[in-house]
Amino acid sequence: MRLLQKTNRTYFLISGTVFIIAGVVFFFVIGFFFKDQLNEKLFHDIRNIRRSIEKNGILPDYYPFIEIKEVTRQPERSFKIIDTLIFNAFEKRNIPFRQISLIRIINGKDYFIAARDTLLEEDDLLEVIAIVTGSVFILLLVSLYFINRKLSLKLWQPFYKTLNEIKEFSYDKPGFKLSSDGQLYEFTELNKTLEKLTQKVISDYQTLKRFAEDASHEIQTPLAVIQTKLETLMQYPELKKEQAELINSAYVYTLRISKLTKTLLLLTKIANDQFPEKNTINLSELLIEKIKMFEDQIAEKALTLNKEIEPDCIFDTNFFLTESLIINLIGNAVKHNIKNGIINIKLEKNHLEISNSGEPLPVNASKLFERFYKTDKSSDSPGLGLSIISEICKLNKWNVNYLYEDNLHKVVVNF
Fold first, then answer.
1. How far apart are CA 333 and CA 303, in angstroms?
2. Is 231 exposed, middle or buried (0-12, 13-18, 19+ CB in 10 A)?
3. How many other CB atoms are there within 10 angstroms of residue 342's CB atom?
4. Please, are residues 290 and 327 in contact by the beta-carbon 8 Å criterion?
5. Are residue 224 and residue 303 in the same domain, yes or no?
6. Quick one: what percent of the chain has pLDDT higher than 70?
7. How many domains does the chain fold into?
8. What whole-number distance in Å separates Cα of residue 392 and Cα of residue 279?
9. Residue 355's closest CA among 325, 391, 329?
10. What CATH number is attached to the domain comprising 224?
């Protein structure tokens, strides 16, 4: 949710609550003051009626608003203020009235005097207040929305400018600098802090990059020397069987270390986006070419290969990484297959699926793409093949998934 939307939603919620409370209070306040004013009017009417009777001796009768009648002498002079309903023959319904009644002695006689006036009906009053309050509320919200939107866009313009500049940030391009032409202190400080942070990131990246490259180079050189010496030792005719086995074991481990170092360096370069160059690649032809590389291994395991390759699937991407992706996918399908198993390779314009026969995995399939994760702990593989596939797909913004269906392990790449 955008900040402006959240702010407007908060405004609407608070304003709505305030207006509802204000409407309820307004309803009771108006009712109270209306009745108070009505009481004053009715008292005034009663005084006028009393003077008229005293002066003229006439009993005015304007029912239902004025009612006067002579009554027998009362022990007490009653006085009442009540709300009552009186039937209106014209409207054919009961109408609410405010009534003040009393008994007074005028010219030696007792008179019952009642003055009435119509009350505002609560339903009508509530409807009017709801319409007025709702109209003001809607007008206020619309005004607040457009004012807040215009003001926010103006105030937050430096922020969005900084955000766009940060999106263009790349740690392999030194000299990155944020513009700080905003007049607001907070955004200026934000830019200064982000600039220091990006400079630190670039510096750390350059240091890590040099370390990875230097370490790989320095490790490969002594490994090559060790391999050469071990190869020389294995050629000695005087070697005993036990000695030859020890030397061969050490040689195998140097090969594994060399392969592991190269793979880790490749993963580091992929993660650091050190393959910026892109080429137009015919993935269909590349896939067919790499399948031929594994023909001997496929034949050795007596695997049945099924191919559905749509011609001329063209992509703009890095050739080396795409080649590594294909080799790892096919290599895994061959290596982890069973004797007399099946390999299915299917390529479409936006979809590559490579599957192989095999037993269900005894482990959580969601961890397959993690580094150094192996389903077979005794395997001499470093467990980085699927990690390379995952990193290459991330770099190209492709989706890669694993699933097990119909006794087949499937790795699916959606371009």
1. 10
2. exposed
3. 17
4. yes
5. no
6. 80
7. 3
8. 15
9. 329
10. 1.10.287
Same domain assignment for residues 313 and 407: yes
Q: How far apart, in whole angstroms, are the C-alpha atoms of residue 161 and residue 180?
A: 10
Q: What digits encode the pLDDT tens for the residues 160-185?
A: 777 777 777 776 666 667 766 656 77
Return the closest-CA partner of residue 96 out of 110, 82, 79.
82
Q: Identity (one letter) of the amino acid at 244?
A: A
What are the tens digits of pLDDT across the range 244-275? 888 888 877 777 777 767 666 776 777 666 66
| Mean predicted confidence (pLDDT) in 267-288 | 78
Mean pLDDT of 13-32: 79
What is the C-alpha separation between 336 and 409, in angstroms, rounded? 9
Instruction: Centre a 10 Å sphere on the Cβ of residue 303 and count the other Cβ atoms it contains.
Output: 20
Query: Which structural domain range is residue 371 located in?
Result: 279-414
Among the candidates 143, 161, 195, a domain finishes at: 143
Amino acid at 205: Y
pLDDT in tens, 183-195: 677 777 777 888 7
329-375 residue pLDDT tens: 888 888 888 889 999 999 988 889 999 998 777 666 555 666 555 55
Burial of 411 (0-12, 13-18, 19+ CB in 10 A): buried
C-alpha dist (Å) from residue 137 to 9, 26, 134, 149, 364: 14, 14, 5, 18, 56
Instruction: Assign 378 a pLDDT band (cuts: 50, 70, 90).
Output: very low
